[in-house]
Design goal:
23% strand; alpha+beta; 444 residues; Sulfite Reductase Hemoprotein, domain 1; 10 helices
Length: 444
């Protein structure tokens, strides 16, 4: 997997770190429960030694809360007066950007199973490394929003295909050649707008980002803002003046398999598996992270991979050791069986840490999990911003007051959370309604 970061090789200056509401490694953002530091992991990967460094920093300089994010990164919460010491500790572990201005633009998401997935058409890791290098070292790209995001998909069965990206690329094979289909302001399940050979993948990313910056006004921070004014065909016409693009007529990315981020799954090498586990509601404590790192050292290749499902994988485990790893993860409090209800629930920080949240979503999610008769995929959001989920979940509970939620069911024909089903429900009432749908496609 990609190295999880590099020690900063340029001085940190006030000009290099832009004002933003998005936390980064070098930008601590304040919340009700203290400062938040976001550690962007290249390709979602982190070494066992680096995981130990994150655990130590969270325990020593913050409140001991570590979060797995829906972009396969890590966050430390509850940072107090020792933010400088925390940043220095993480930089020394090699978890920083390559340049101070590069921290915001490292938003490149891969499959957590890059290089080991049995269904992949392309090992994306080398190409991703080149793309990250360009994103961080081309000074103009520091103008991009901290939310501007790119996805590189190698055709893996384990892939998050529902997160919208400003640019996405997806590998496929045609007549013996591996190509990269791509699209703008959407996700790989959308219709592609063109394709390039794999060797042109990095050039495509550079050309799209430079064209975006040429066309966007300062307030147009995302690709969709530009495409609201400039037709897609007009954007592509200008893009073709920068590099050749193949037309695509009927290509569609196949669906990803469900729940491959949890449990034991075979890799593309005989006799090896990866083991996925979910920290309940995306939260780990230092002992959990240290314990997972030790399991990775003992049974795997001393690396961990975080996922967009707010979970983690231990790759390159001998098949004979899989049960021991599952048992070890369970002893740490991590969920590695899909039958466990909490493994399928997601919730934002909630009112204990966020001033915008109308309910204690973490507490309410645990209560809901105890009431549900079967495992359902439910998202609890404290407000309309939907910070915990970058995609529309099958079921969403949107807080309206402490302990009370509006209930939505996903509907592809409707924007936002989907179709409103009931208002102002208690958790008990929501559980009763959801139990009546337990045998429906909602949990698929």
């Amino acid at each position: 997997m990609l190295p999880a970061g590099h020690i900063l090789n340029t001085p940190v200056t006030s000009n290099a770190i832009r004002p933003s509401a998005c936390p980064g490694l070098l930008r601590i953002v304040q919340a009700l429960d203290g400062g938040i530091c976001r550690i962007k992991l290249n390709g979602g990967a982190i070494s066992a030694a680096q995981a130990d460094a994150v655990a130590d920093a969270a325990a020593q300089f913050a409140g001991g809360v570590i979060e797995a994010t829906n972009r396969a990164n890590l966050q430390i919460r509850g940072i107090g007066q020792q933010s400088t010491e925390l940043i220095d500790r993480l930089l020394a572990a090699g978890l920083g950007p390559r340049t101070a201005a590069g921290d915001d633009v490292r938003n490149l998401m891969l499959s957590p199973a890059a290089g080991i997935d049995r269904d992949m058409h392309l090992d994306t890791r080398a190409l991703a490394e080149s793309m990250l290098d360009s994103l961080q070292h081309r000074s103009r790209f520091s103008e991009l929003s901290a939310k501007f995001a790119v996805q590189l998909d190698g055709g893996e069965a384990l892939a998050m295909l529902e997160h919208h990206h400003d640019l996405w690329l997806s590998a496929f094979e045609r007549e013996g050649e591996t190509l990269l289909a791509f699209g703008l302001a959407g996700c790989p399940t959308d219709r592609a707008v063109g394709a390039v050979p794999v060797e042109s993948g990095q050039a495509l990313v550079i050309a799209v980002l430079e064209l975006f910056l040429d066309l966007a006004r300062p307030e147009q921070t995302r690709m969709r803002h530009v495409l609201d004014e400039i037709p897609m065909l007009a954007f592509l016409e200008q893009l073709r003046t920068r590099l050749p693009i193949k037309a695509l007529r009927a290509w569609r990315r196949g669906p990803a398999a469900a729940d491959l981020h949890i449990g034991v799954h075979r890799q593309n090498t005989s006799g090896q598996v990866y083991v996925g586990a979910v920290p309940a509601l995306g939260r780990l404590d230092p002992s959990m992270l240290r314990g997972a790192a030790e399991l990775a050292r003992h049974f795997g290749d001393a690396t961990l991979r975080f996922t967009p499902w707010q979970s983690l994988l231990l790759p390159n485990i001998r098949e004979a050791d899989a049960d021991a790893v599952v048992d070890g993860l369970a002893q740490l409090g991590l969920l590695s069986r899909s039958s466990e209800h909490l493994a399928h629930l997601i919730a934002c920080t909630g009112s204990t840490g966020c001033g915008k949240s109308l309910a204690d979503t973490k507490r309410d999610a645990r209560h809901l999990a105890a009431l549900l008769p079967s495992a359902l995929k439910v998202h609890l959001s404290g407000c309309q911003r939907s910070c915990a989920a970058a995609h529309c979940a099958p079921v969403t509970l949107l807080a309206v007051s402490p302990g009370h939620y509006d209930l939505y069911f996903r509907d592809a024909t409707l924007p936002g959370f989907g179709a409103l089903h009931a208002r102002n429900l208690t958790i008990e009432a929501a559980a009763t309604l959801l139990a009546g749908h337990a045998r429906s496609p909602l949990d698929a």
